[in-house]
Amino acid sequence: MTSPNILVHRHTRSSRIAIAVALLLVLAIPTMPFWASSGHIRLIIELSCLIAIAQMWNLLAGYGGMVSVGQQAFIGAGGYSLFVLSMYGGLNPFLAVPLAVILPALLAAPSYLLLRKLDGPYFAIGTWVLAEVFRLVTGNLSVVNAGSGMTLRAMGQFTAHQREIGLTILCALLLLVTLGGTFVMLRSRLGLAMTAMRDDPVSAASQGVNVGRIRFGIFVVAAMGTGLAGAIYYMAQLRISPGSGFDPYWSSICIFIVMVGGIGRLEGPIIGALLYFFATRLFGHYGASYMIVLGLQTLLVALFSPGGLWELFRKYRDWPWFPVGHMLAHQHSGNR
Predict the structure, then answer these.
(1) Other Cβ atoms closer than 10 A to 260
(2) Is residue 334's pLDDT more than 60?
(3) In 3D, which of 61, 70, 120, 123 has the Cα closest to residue 264?
(4) Mean of the per-residue pLDDT values for the chain?
(5) If we measure between CA atoms, which residue out of 54, 65, 66 comes closest to residue 267?
(6) What would the 3-class secondary structure string for the chain be?
(7) What is the pLDDT at residue 288?
(8) pTM metric for this prediction
(9) Are 168 and 160 in contact (CB under 8 A)?
(10) Rounded-to-integer distance, Cα 170 and Cα 95, Å
């Protein structure tokens, strides 16, 4: 007679292919200055930053249960950190980018302590208020030219080709840190606790998961990843101002990308970012009507497919790209 043996898998054929393709694409980004046009490089830089920022918001809302509409606070903080370190610290802008995550982390820690007792919409409103406070303070600091903004003059020492090489390397590292780092973290014991907290924070707490401490860590990590993306994005723009760095539109982008792509899944922000990126390029010239269509699309997905486009796709083909859990399979063996 036969008896089933239970096998535990961490990967599937689809995930092995997806991870290999993702690594190849990320490693190909630094080679673009040698074969791609400057216009295409700028597009890839923007897309990389969108994926990173959305992935951090997904980590925050999809796993930490903290819906923020003030992530622009850390985008601006990361961008301004880069400009200040380069202008007043005399640092090479490319070497200053990793240091730009320090200020977002320093701002995130006390911000969470202020917001941690708020829940649901009150937490979201609190993050928006803090972001507005950061914007107003920055807009009145003469050291950063107040509302006039700052220009990254230090980039003038590099040729256009050198800038492209440096920026594409930073974009590849950004994706490895935000997407790859999140994938590795979610497959660890900490990730198991985060997934349990996402599904039911009360039950997770009853099983010994320190929900408060994990949420604090997620909030700070998300701020650092968002700040890193902000630094790279505004390095490519060569200019930053309070109105652009702390623009609430950043949070709107995050909400659209993650809600449409799929919240609480690594694949969701990637799909959502690609959809937003190409939709913006194809239909952005329609102006306000185009934004209304995006808003309606978000509403329809939230109503009829709360798991986003990724969950809709999984109903037809269960081909995970970045599985973070354990999958069971039966293997029959002959035993007497």
Answers:
(1) 26
(2) no
(3) 61
(4) 87
(5) 54
(6) CEEEEEEEECCCHHHHHHHHHHHHHHHHHHHHHHCCCHHHHHHHHHHHHHHHHHHHHHHHHHHCCCCCCCCHHHHHHHHHHHHHHHHCCCCCHHHHHHHCCHHHHHHHHHHHHHHCCCCCHHHHHHHHHHHHHHHHHHCCCHHHCHHHCEECHHHHHCCHHHHHHHHHHHHHHHHHHHHHHHHHHHCCHHHHHHHHHHHCHHHHHHCCCCHHHHHHHHHHHHHHHHHHHHHHHHHHHCEECHHHHCCCHHHHHHHHHHHHHCCCCCHHHHHHHHHHHHHHHHHHHHCHHHHHHHHHHHHHHHHHCCCHHHHHHHHHCCCCCCCCCCEEEEEEEECC
(7) 66
(8) 0.91
(9) no
(10) 10
pLDDT for position 86: 94
**Phi–psi pair at 6, nearest 5 degrees:** -90, 120
pLDDT tier at 336 (50, 70, 90 boundaries)? very low
Q: Report the C-alpha gap between 109 and 223 in whole angstroms.
A: 9
Q: Which two tokens stand for residue 3?
A: 């008896």
For residue 118, the one-letter residue type is L
Residue 256 near residue 298 (C-beta atoms within 8 A): yes
Specify the range with the lowest mean pLDDT, choosing from 28-37, 127-136, 212-221, 323-332.
323-332
Q: Which comes out higher in pLDDT, residue 323 or 179? A: 179
Distances (CA, A) of 124 to 76, 89, 255, 269: 18, 35, 12, 20
The pair of structure tokens assigned to 43 is 């597009």
Give Cβ neighbours of residue 219 (< 8 Å, ≥ 6 apart).
60, 64, 66, 108, 111, 112
